[in-house]
């Protein structure tokens, strides 16, 4: 069965509330999880000790006129910033600084992500987030790794993610989801555990993409975004535990997410002047399950809802658009979050707004 068909099946099972066994893997997967338990002990001897927590990155980022753009981050330790040394180095802070620069407005970051969170915990996070920010402008979700390592049934995990996206959309928020990272890219994992981890995490990422698009959100594949860089410079891209990204690793992930977050907020005017997908960059419109499968193989790819001839669905399901968005041309500012009152913000000079993305396309 192809990955596209597996993704569609998992998403359909999630929609109808069914289940297909432990992690939806069948006999091969169950045997793999038995191996996982043995080899995980070996991996723990290689991977460093986990950190005590993550820095508090909440606050106001950037300056400019108008009310702050309200950004809420949900998810697991990646969203929380475990491995970052300072608040300004998290994905949320980096994205907030980038949005502030592109928009010329301040960004208010609220972070309810939690270390160790699984997709099942997103319901509680979204309630806490909406209690604090009833009508966020944009929500960023990073989830999936713990669903794989904790053997969570994939259709159950996907259903919780889809419900979270729908709840945030109902609250008026644009939603961007960074899908499950490719755990096979973690070098300390021995073979064949790495192969199994890669298959499980990629299948989950594809199914997440289908569910997110069905719920009206945008998915960005994280995949093995750090794999090549980790192999070349593991001491730079990963933190001291050899598992969580370092500040440089988080910056790489944030650079993949920032263009989609900016597009979701319509910072570049796409709603009034839509741009056509670029075939030479591998962009286009197709069934969401096929788009999800392609995105998993190409880290940094965005998959978003689309229409064909005014129709949202075709013979093979929901239409989706693949985008390979351009990355920022300069490093995103990394100043510490500035907490100011309204009078101070109005009197502060606005940050210059970058002209837009570069002309180069990263291969992820």
Automatic annotation (TrEMBL):
Domain SGNH hydrolase-type esterase, chain residue ranges per copy: 73-252
Compositional bias segments (type: Basic and acidic residues): 339-348
Keywords: Hydrolase, Membrane, Transmembrane, Transmembrane helix
Superkingdom of the source species: Bacteria
InterPro entries: Ester_Hydrolysis_Enzymes (IPR051532), SGNH_hydro (IPR013830), SGNH_hydro_sf (IPR036514)
One annotated GO molecular function: hydrolase activity
Chain intervals for the UniProt region annotation (Disordered): 333-364
Record bears the keyword Cell division: no
Annotated TM spans: 12-36
Entry coiled-coil feature ranges: none
Name of the protein in question: SGNH/GDSL hydrolase family protein
Originating species: Intrasporangium calvum
